[in-house]
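Handout, section B. The chain below has 329 residues.
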Amino acid sequence: MQQALTLRTRGCAVRGFQAGIRTWWWLAKMMLPITFGVAVLQWAGVIAAVSEWLTPAFSYIGLDGEGVLTFLTAISASIYAAIGVMGTLNLDYRSVTIISVMTLIAHNLIVESVVQRKAGCRSAWGMAALRLAMAVLTAWILNRVLPENYTGRLLLAHRDAGDTAFGSIMSGWALAQAKLLPLMFAIIVSLNVLQQILREFNLIGCLTSPLAPLMKVFGLSRGSAFLWVVLNTLGLTYGSSVMIGEVETGGIPRRDARLLNAHAAMNHSLLEDTLLYCALGVGLFWLLVPRIVMAMAVVWTMRLGIIWKERKNNRRVIRPGASGGKTGA
C-alpha cells in the first residue's frame, strides 16, 4: 500500500516536472523578446510620446498626461512598473483610484494576451482589445460615479525618475529577468506537480465544490473552480501554466476555457495585485467590485450570445425538414 502510494506520487512529480518545464520554456522564449522590446521603447521615449498624444482623449475619463503615462506603462509592462511611475508623478487620490482599477484590468497586456491564447481563448488580439475596452469603460463610469472632491490618504513614496540612459535601462531589464526566470521555474513546476497530485488522488472536486455556487453567479462552469482559484491567487502568467495543461489534455472544454479566460482577463490575481494597491491606500471596494461586475457582465453577455447562436443553428436544422415533410402523391 505504502509502496503503491509512493509510486503514484513519484509519477505525479515526474509528469508535473515535465509539463512544468515545457510551459516555463515556452513562457521564457515568449517573454524575453517582448520585455526587451518594451525596454527599448521606454528608452526611445515612444511610450512617453504616445501618452502625450492620448492625453486629450483621456480627459473624458478624468486623467491627465501623467495618468495616461502610468496606464501605458502598466499595459506594456506590469503593475509594479506602473506603481513605480506613480511614485515619480504628482497624482491626486481620485486619479490614482481610477488608474488603479484600469491597470488591474489591463496590465502586462502583450505577455498575458499571448498566454491566454495558448490557454484556450480564440485570439490574443481580441483578448487585448477586450481588456483595453473594459478598462476605459470602467474608468469612464468611475469618473462619473466618484465625487469631484473624492479624497483619501495615499501611502505613495515619491521619488525621482530613474536613469533613462540606454545602458541603465538594459541592465535593469537584464537584472529583472535574471530574478524572474528562476522564480517562474519554481512556481510553474510546483503548480504542475500539485495539479497532477490533485487529479491522481481525486482531490480537485473536494477543494472546489464549495465554490460551485459562486461559479454559477459568475456565469462559469462548476469545473472552472480550481482554475479560478489558481488564476486569482497566482495571476495569469503563472496560473495559466496550469490552465494550458488542462486545455491541451481536454481537462476543461474549450467553451468553458474561453468563458474563464474572459472572466480572468478583467478579474485575476485578486490577492496580490489588489493588496499592492491597498497598501498604497486605495479603497478596497473600488479595487474589487468594478472588476467583478465587469467580468460578470462580459461572461453573461458571451453566454447569451452562445445560447442565441445555438437556437439559430437549431432553427436552421429544423426548417428544411418541416418544409419538406410532404411530397406529391
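Note. Confidence is low (pLDDT under 50) at residues 325-329. Compare this with the example in section A.
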